Each structure stands twice: as C-alpha cells, then as structure tokens.
Amino acid sequence: MISILYGIFVVKKMKHKFISTFLLLLLIKVAYSQQVPNGNFEQWYNESNYQNPQYWDTPNSTTSSLNIFTVTRETNIVQNGTSCAKIQSRSIFGTPIPGLVTLGDFNVNIATFQSSITGGYPFTFKPSILKGYYQYEPVNNDRAFIGVILLKQNGNSWDTLGSGNFKPTNTVLSWTPFTVPIQYINTQETPTHLNIIILSSDKDYPQPNSILYIDNLTFEYNNSITSVSNNISPEIQWTSPYLRIKNIKQPTIIEVFDITGKSISKLHTYSEISFTLPLNNIYFISCTNDLNTITKKIITYP
Predict the structure, then answer these.
(1) Which of 32, 115, 277, 292 is the most exposed place for a label (fewest CB within 10 A)?
(2) Band of residue 223 on the pLDDT scale cut at 50, 70, 90
C-alpha cells in the first residue's frame, strides 16, 4: 500500500514538475516573441560571399556582385555578446547609397537605383518603446535613421498603426543608449507585422563611408499605449479630385507611392496643401515630420 501511494506521489510530483516546466518554457517563448527578432545581431547566415543577420534584409544580395557590402557582422566593436551590425554607406558607380537593414523585404534596381521596402516580420504585439545602443561616425554632417513601424496587412495593402524614429547626427564613438517612443495612430487594431528600418545616412543625401553600429535592440511595454494627438498629426483626406493634407504645423515631407511601392511624387511643405491625383487608383501617402511618420492608403474614387 505504501509503495502504491509512493508511486502515485512520484507520478503526481513528476506530472507537476512537467507542467511547471512546460508553463515556464511557454512563458519564455511568449516573452521572446514580444521582442525584436535577432535584435542583438548574434545570428547571421552565410550567402555566397557575404553574411546577413537572421530575419533582416539588406542590399547585400544586390551589391555583392560588385564586392560591395553595406551591412557586415562586426565582432570587435560590440556592446554586449559577440557581434553587432555595422551599417556603412557606400558609392556604386559614383552614386552614393545608404547602408540599410530592415525587417521588411528590400528591393532595388541597380540600374535605376530605385528601391522599395515592403512588408515586415509577423508580429501581433504593441510595444511602447524601442530601445538599443549605437555608435555613429557621420561624414559631411550626415544623418542616420532608426525607425520602427507597426503594420496591419489588409490583403495587398498595409496600414500603419504605430511608428517612431530616431535621427542621430553627432559623432558618437562609444556605445550610447537610445529610445524611440512609439506613437499609435490606431490603438484599437492589432498589428500583423513589425518593421524596423535602419539607415546609416540621410536617404536623400547619403554620404559614402558614414558608419552606424547597432546592437541589442529591445522593446519595452507599458500598460498604456500612446496615441498620436490630432494637434501634431497631419490629416490626409481624399475629396475627388483633390487630395488634401491638413493640420500641418511644422516642416513636413509629403511622399506619394503607387501600389507597387514606387515613389511618384515628393514635396516639402510648411502648411496645408492640396493637389490632384489620377482617378481610380490606389496610392499610399506618407507624411514625415520631426515627431512622427504616418502613412495612409488612398483610393481615388471619382
């Protein structure tokens, strides 16, 4: 009888231990899935003559045929762990290009230098802050860019639910922490994808040999989510035949993309603006200022 009871006790104890271990592993998995994939840049995979960080895309697949690489694995200058991402602007046939790493899909036409970034990494959480460490060696007053976007996929279109960015300009030769608050345009919807885009140069005026080191990207979660206030967020409205962008209270860059992601118009404005667009088409309107970037899909119904 004692042996039977002892056997039952052992079985129950082992079962309890198994359940506890299972729950612990589940919690670890959930906690990991809430973080930036390979945000410490420890995991890299080999291609023919270059490496890319796991889960991230870079221009290397296009530029490697010229033996030019804009993103490399750095093992000597490391904030923590064994490696970080070294992102360096380059020159191709005399044309400067920024170093770039993204969780989306990067596509470029090397002949025309037209590029696009689409999609992102599957992700259904709502972080409040992106944190990390960087060093920066800009050339000719260059400016780097670290941006985070929470997206919701609707068929072939993408809606921006939240975003934030950081644009370092000063030379920083030691590991320095940065934080990027994420402002949500829509707090009711759940994201489907995450994209983080990091550039070593100003995308419009890249300076060859500007170098940005990035390491240990993490998310921070708060109980409350910050929404973009209407007094700082441009309002994008379509009233045929005009696209109107109102509530502009500081210098703003307006960019119009077609359904393929090609930029078809770009302008700078300090105040409300309106212009026409061809009817019966789908466009993505991006408004960027020093506080945030918002993107909205517009269908130009008559």
Answers:
(1) 32
(2) low
pLDDT at 157: 83
pLDDT tens sequence across 81-124: 999 999 999 998 888 999 999 999 888 766 666 777 888 999 99
Q: Which two tokens stand for residue 58?
A: 């870079």
Locate 36 and state its tokens.
Answer: 């930036």
> What's the CATH number for 44-220?
2.60.120.890
DSSP characters over 14-28: HHHHHHHHHHHHHHH
Q: Which two tokens stand for residue 21?
A: 């271990």
Task: Domain 235-299: state its class.
Answer: mainly beta
∠ CA(245), CA(184), CA(254), 5° rounding?
25
Phi-psi group of 21: left, alpha or beta (phi > 0 → left; psi -120 to 50 → alpha; rest → beta): alpha
User: pTM score > 0.70 for this model?
Assistant: no
Contact status, residue 252 vs residue 261, Cβ threshold 8 Å: no
| The pairing of beta strand 114-118 with beta strand 105-109 | antiparallel
Residue spans of the domains in the chain: they are 1-33, 44-220, 235-299
pLDDT digit string (tens) for 257-273?
Answer: 776 566 788 888 888 88
DSSP 92-155: ETTEEE--EEESSEEEEETTTTEEEEE--EE-----SEEEEEEEEE-STT---EEEEEEEEEET
Average pLDDT, the chain: 82
